[in-house]
């Protein structure tokens, strides 16, 4: 009997080695496609992984390859959000590590996980003293309010039923000018002149990626907030009208000074990158943005997996509404 049990264990280990090898080959191919932002091909590879994982009882049953498991789950969530599809794998709880990520990376202070997609604390408290300033925090709060209305209150129906005044989400104001931040003050909504005003934001300003992400986000979600008696046509994230903001956003993300700031705000970074990556559909910039997303998302296993998962899921639900 003992010999038979030992034989079963050896057989199970052999199956595991073959299983892990097959998954790794598929995953490597998927990574190559991700780096080129070839999302349809990545979906094919995920389908292959799904079939193999089902043979072992599901992704949550893979304790021996935890790092691989979380990477597959992350890519699956991102592909669903970017491609407006359903995740293949069910959500699972990722155990938090003993060493917090800030200490491991030498970052002073706690990471800020709140964003337009996650959290319920007032953002003027969460982002107090942040480099985004009072105006940046106001924009973030407006974006979160818009998200909550669209996802949790079914858009304009909430305002029409409650009699609550409708916020003017279409206006994003550039606050008091500072030479170190921006070179002009304007109100812009998307006309050619206003797009030129957007370009006056300095790329090295931490406010720049935030404002351009908000411009894209507002343009897409605003039709969902139109009065039901005056329906507005939906606009995709990748509409040509968002191109100026997308280019400026990508330029700002490539500046090291901004990278060193946003590393403290992974929740905010996930929102910005999701908006930009979907807006960049069919463009060369998408590969850079998707790989950046995976880099930020991979850090979530060190302390903010659930927050990241919820953020991506809420963005995926927005994609379902706007296409």
TrEMBL record:
Stretches for region Disordered: 183-202
Name of this protein: Uncharacterized protein
Organism (species): Hyaloscypha hepaticicola
């Amino acid at each position: 009997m003992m010999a038979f049990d030992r034989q079963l264990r050896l057989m199970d280990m052999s199956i595991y080695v073959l299983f892990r090898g097959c998954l790794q080959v598929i995953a490597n191919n998927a990574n190559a496609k991700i780096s080129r932002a070839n999302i349809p091909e990545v979906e094919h590879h995920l389908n292959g992984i799904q079939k193999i994982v089902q043979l072992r009882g599901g992704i949550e049953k893979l304790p021996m390859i935890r790092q691989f498991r979380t990477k597959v789950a992350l890519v699956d969530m991102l592909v669903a959000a970017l491609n407006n599809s359903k995740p293949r794998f069910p959500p699972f709880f990722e155990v938090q590590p003993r060493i917090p990520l800030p200490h491991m990376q030498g970052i002073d202070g706690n990471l800020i996980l709140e964003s337009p997609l996650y959290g319920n604390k007032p953002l003027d408290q969460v982002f107090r003293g942040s480099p985004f300033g009072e105006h940046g925090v106001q924009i973030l709060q407006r974006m979160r309010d818009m998200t909550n209305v669209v996802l949790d209150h079914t858009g304009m129906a909430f305002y029409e039923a409650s009699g609550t005044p409708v916020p003017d989400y279409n206006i994003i104001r550039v606050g008091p000018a500072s030479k170190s931040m921006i070179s002009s003050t304007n109100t812009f909504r998307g006309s050619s002149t206003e797009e030129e005003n957007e370009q006056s934001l300095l790329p090295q300003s931490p406010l720049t990626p935030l404002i351009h992400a908000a411009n894209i986000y507002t343009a897409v979600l605003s039709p969902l907030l139109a009065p039901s008696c005056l329906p507005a046509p939906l606009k995709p994230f990748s509409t040509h009208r968002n191109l100026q903001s997308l280019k400026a956003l990508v330029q700002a993300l490539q500046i090291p000074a901004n990278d060193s700031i946003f590393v403290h705000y992974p929740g905010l970074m996930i929102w910005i990158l999701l908006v930009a990556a979907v807006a960049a559909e069919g463009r060369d910039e998408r590969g850079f943005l998707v790989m950046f997303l995976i880099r930020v998302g991979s850090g979530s296993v060190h302390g903010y997996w659930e927050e990241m998962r919820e953020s991506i899921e809420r963005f995926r639900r927005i994609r379902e509404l706007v296409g």
